[in-house]
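Structure record:
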Amino acid sequence: MIDEREVVDLLRAATDDVVVPAAPTRDLAAAGDKRRHRRWVVVSLATATAVAAVAVAVPVALSSERSGRAVPSANSPTTAPGASCADPVPSRVLPDWARTGFSDPRPRMPYVLGDSGDIVAIFFALPLTSPPSADHNNKILWVSRVAGGTSLHITATLPDGSASTTRVVDGGPGPSIIDLPKPGCWHLTLQWGDNSDTLDVAYLAP
């Protein structure tokens, strides 16, 4: 019977001719470097793409913000570049010099202030429409910050030059019904006595 020592000697003799190759440390290191390089390239490309997207998006966003332009809705009047019609006109507290006749000490009404700040157009029913709506008039109360004049002369034009008309409010700035020939963003030139101002108002299709 073979004892334990003889078994050990036989196993050692049987494995003496077996060659165990050395671990390919250089090849493994090179493979690791390649994998790290590939990850670096992928990350770098992703980062560059994100930076490029931001570089394009930020100037566009800033340009839109600076210009103050918005995409018009389907019901908004057609406006030319530079037109400043607001639709709908927001309700705000009237300037202190435009509150005569209102019972509220701080009345809120939809109004447009003249570009020079000398007149306001206060709207009693919105929207203004062309042709006039069947359920409300295009009623505008004109209030001047400066005295003078016995009639308010209005020259209304569309920015594209497709229409122009004049209106007169007898008695100077005051209550009026102003109907204009077609929908659009109308530029109004206002003259009363020696005073003048301009503003833009939107007329919609009813």
